[in-house]
């Protein structure tokens, strides 16, 4: 009986020391009396992202640029080596399939090399769920260089065709071309003509007859004079030549000049 009394007293003392709140069922209220929801794993908690067009359209600036190409979502935020400069930026946040396949509407597709290089920017397929992509560090070092699929511009030397129209443009003493026996001659620096400036009226013209008759006198130039004139030939009439012609600084040798002067005096 004594043991029963002691046990009852012990239970009574224990009940007096307990907090009444401890006897209540667990509550979903926080310390402010607000009801809280059970903690669960949402898509954001798990670090995943649904690649919808709605999501793509949020990334519509040069520094935060996503676009869709052929069903793939690409992150071009660090695309600083585009051969066409920033021509792609207006398509950020859009489906740019047509623009990519036609080079912005020019009708010319990108090369296979360019298409293969774009693979590195794919983050997933449209409407697929992916892991939340990390923030990109927009520095050129993070992005392998994109090979320029545009053929390099090779400097070309301009060509001209030696037509009579072209010859006619060179019709003065300091820019003098003439045609003699089908050859085009540049006499711009022909300052030692034995006959002085008698050739100047023929600059820019067909002067074969004038040359072969010494300006209509009926006698022809000497064989030596004919040979020396070869130094002034820049091409044949109708020929395509490189347009790097500068005035030919040739003077007639003293012996030939004296001989020609005697011929003119005899005439």
TrEMBL record:
Transmembrane segments: none annotated. Gene3D superfamilies: Cytochrome b5-like heme/steroid binding domain (3.10.120.10). InterPro entries: Cyt_B5-like_heme/steroid-bd, Cyt_B5-like_heme/steroid_sf, Cytochrome_b5. Keywords: Heme, Iron, Metal-binding. The keyword NAD does not apply. GO terms for molecular function: heme binding; metal ion binding. One of its GO terms (cellular component) is membrane. Residues 48-127, 159-238 form the Cytochrome b5 heme-binding domain. The keyword ATP-binding does not apply. Belongs to the cytochrome b5 family. This is Cytochrome b5-like Heme/Steroid binding domain protein. It comes from Candidatus Bilamarchaeum dharawalense.
């Amino acid at each position: 009986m004594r043991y029963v009394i002691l046990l009852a007293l012990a239970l009574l003392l224990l009940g007096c020391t307990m907090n009444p709140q401890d006897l209540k069922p667990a509550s979903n209220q926080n310390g402010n009396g607000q009801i809280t929801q059970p903690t669960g794993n949402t898509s954001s908690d798990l670090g995943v992202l649904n690649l919808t067009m709605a999501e793509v359209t949020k990334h519509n600036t040069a520094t935060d640029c996503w676009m869709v190409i052929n069903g793939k979502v690409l992150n071009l935020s660090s695309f600083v080596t585009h051969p066409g400069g920033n021509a792609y930026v207006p398509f950020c946040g859009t489906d740019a399939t047509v623009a990519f396949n036609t080079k912005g509407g020019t009708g010319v597709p990108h090369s296979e090399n360019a298409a293969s290089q774009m693979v590195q920017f794919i983050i997933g397929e449209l409407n697929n769920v992916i892991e939340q992509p990390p923030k990109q560090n927009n520095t050129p070092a993070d992005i392998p260089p994109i090979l320029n699929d545009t053929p390099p511009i090779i400097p070309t030397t301009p060509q001209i065709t030696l037509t009579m129209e072209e010859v006619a443009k060179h019709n003065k003493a300091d820019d003098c071309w003439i045609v003699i026996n089908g050859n085009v001659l540049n006499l711009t620096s022909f300052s030692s003509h034995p006959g002085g400036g008698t050739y100047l009226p023929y600059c820019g013209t067909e002067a074969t007859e004038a040359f072969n008759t010494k300006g209509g006198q009926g006698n022809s130039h000497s064989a030596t004079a004919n040979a020396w004139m070869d130094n002034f030939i820049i091409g044949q009439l109708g020929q395509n030549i490189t347009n790097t012609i500068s005035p030919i600084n040739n003077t007639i040798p003293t012996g030939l000049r004296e001989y020609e002067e005697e011929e003119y005096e005899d005439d």
